[in-house]
Design brief:
- This protein is about 90% helix and about 0% strand.
- It starts with a helix and ends with a helix.
- By secondary structure, the protein is an all-alpha fold.
Length: about 350
């Protein structure tokens, strides 16, 4: 009942509105009209929509249309305005929702690019720290490599010098042995034939002196044997010793003693040389292994430095690209906000007009 009563009341108000406007249109200023009607007519004529409404009513009245038709016409116009308001509201809400979504999406993209910049800067910072450490390590390994290579070259030089000294010493020992063996052989041969040293004579003496002179100029500690050889030569040339076989046998025994001593010294030199060779080989093996390790480290560090340099360059480019995208997205965000604000202002302005028209019809 309340709904029916409300609809009846609304219908009665519209009929009253039509009647009042009709009076104003028909009689104009010829009769006294309620000031409210005059105000309503003035309100209608103060807006573009009101003028259109007023002209429509005037046209319909002049055509002789009944009042109910005018009421229906007003209802249609009310519905049209209401639909316009609803459609405008929907469009506005949809546009503003799109604005919110676009702005939020742009803001999310900005945050993503900011995160990328921060991540790349962290990578660059860590890579630079590692790069600095690798460069120091590379420099240390290069210095150690140079030192090891120098030590290896020095070992080669020392070994060559040791080999030369060994060759020189053994040659001197061999020369001394040659003198002693020859002298002993001459004495033994003549002793066997003559029973004395008569035939040894000046030939052996000259040979011994020639060899002693040769040995005397050698830098060898065995030069002390030279005096013994000279004594033996003098004994061989001494007439008093020639008939004494016992003396001759002592001379041969002395020569053999010297030969044994030199052989012993020679063996000692060979043992020392072998020890030097073993030490040299051990040092060369250790230095070669160290050099190989250092070269491997240098290659690894060099590759790592190249990779780190590439990583730093890539991330610097990434920082540049993301920073540019941040600026672009912020400009797009500002532009979109301006568009949304402009649409909102336009909607508010147009909505005020629509509400005014709706109120006029209502």
């Amino acid at each position: 009942q309340r709904r029916v009563h409300g609809e009846y009341k609304q219908q009665r108000q519209k009929m009253r509105y039509v009647a009042l406007v009709t009076l104003a249109l028909v009689f104009g200023a010829t009769i006294a009209i309620d000031p409210r009607v005059t105000a309503l007519v003035e309100k209608c004529q103060s807006t573009s929509f009101g003028k259109t409404l007023y002209g429509t009513l005037e046209l319909e009245l002049s055509s002789g249309q009944p009042g109910q038709y005018l009421v229906n016409l007003l209802d249609g116009m009310v519905n049209t305005v209401k639909n316009d308001i609803t459609r405008a509201d929907n469009n506005h809400n949809e546009f503003q929702a799109s604005c919110t979504q676009d702005i939020n999406s742009l803001q999310e993209e900005v945050r993503s690019h900011v995160s990328n910049v921060r991540e790349s800067n962290e990578i660059i910072s860590k890579a630079n720290q590692r790069l600095a450490w690798d460069k120091v390590e590379l420099e240390n390994n290069q210095r150690q490599l140079a030192e090891s290579q120098e030590s290896l070259e020095k070992s080669h030089r020392i070994r060559n010098e040791e080999a030369q000294v060994f060759t020189q010493k053994t040659n001197e020992l061999n020369e001394a042995l040659s003198v002693l063996h020859t002298g002993r052989q001459l004495i033994e041969n003549n002793l066997a034939r003559q029973g004395a040293l008569v035939q040894v004579g000046s030939g052996f003496t000259a040979y011994v002196r020639q060899m002693t002179d040769k040995i005397r100029h050698k830098p060898y500690r065995g030069r002390g044997f030279v005096s013994l050889i000279s004594i033996l030569a003098d004994l061989a040339a001494n007439p008093n010793a020639q008939a004494n076989q016992e003396t001759v046998q002592k001379i041969i025994s002395l020569i053999q003693g010297v030969i044994d001593e030199i052989e012993k010294a020679k063996n000692t030199e060979y043992q020392a040389e072998q020890e030097r060779i073993n030490n040299y080989n051990e040092i060369v093996e250790l230095l070669t292994k160290r050099i190989n390790e250092l070269e491997s480290n240098i290659n690894r560090l060099t590759n790592e430095i190249n990779n780190l340099t590439q990583i730093i360059t890539q991330n610097k480019n990434r920082v540049t690209d993301n920073t540019r995208q941040i600026q672009i997205k912020k400009r797009q965000q500002i532009k979109r906000k301006k568009e949304c604000t402009a649409e909102n202002n336009q909607y508010a302005k147009e909505n005020a007009v629509r509400q005014e028209n709706f109120n006029l019809l209502s």
